[in-house]
Amino acid sequence: MLLGQYTFTLLHQCNLNASCLALGAQVKARQGVISSLALHNGVWDVNDGLLTADRVFLATGSHPRDDQLYPDLTTVPLDDALIPSKLSGALCCLSSTVCLTQEKQVIQDGLVRNHHASLLNLCSRVYRSSHSAILVLMNLSEMKNGPKVVNLYRSPLKYAKFLSDGTIILDNTGLKTLRIAARGLAADWAREKLESGELERRGKLRRINTTKQDPTQALKKCSKLVTAVGFERNTLPEITVDGKQLQSIQHDKQTGTIIPDKLYGFGIAFPEEVTDPEYGHKELNVGLWKFMRFARKVIQSQ
To answer: pTM of the full predicted structure?
Structure first.
């Protein structure tokens, strides 16, 4: 059984290969809410008798993390800040400043954390060094009569590097030259508009390295906050094994295994861990195609 954020999929009479994931004739999808998973005698009981399954694959998703670091500021949800029309609506009556904080990526228990904050004056504060933060900055800078931006950061932006053999250095943590519809390339925009100092010269942006300068005075000018500190798992159903509830759900970042041969996790809530080929550091392999590839690899190995 594949348990997703909004649907659960039953895999019937199937060898759990790629054809199952294609939602073919052997797959049934049902929409519902799973509140409990209980493993007893090697069989999963779903929602106290609603269904039974031999194996469960969790693909339950995640949501933007909100650390409530500045509770006095009104928060603009990250999902809204990524959509120009919604962001404009949230800031339509304001003409002030936005703060963006950028900090290095931190990984904790199924949590993808790219600490970056952006504060609007109104301050909109957006955390992240990856595409979300850059897209929010793009949206803010392109708003007609939009607010000024204060960019709070602790480490420089990283850029992915494409090698001739197809290898991508800093694949998961670096900005890429991905085209955002007709709006240009994210990495190029960051270099040309953000790091070149162009927005600062035009008076639309102020960048503050918080390891060297106290941002307190800048924060006093802010009234709105956008946080982009990464994502955390959506709430999982209660999971018990032989009557004992699992308190901490951890997965093997190489195989997706939570309970061998019985419970697996995929997607942004349970990402694969890979090693950067040039720098050697560990990073989470995040992206829709990467999630699909990881799930297919694990399922085909069963």
So the answer is: 0.71
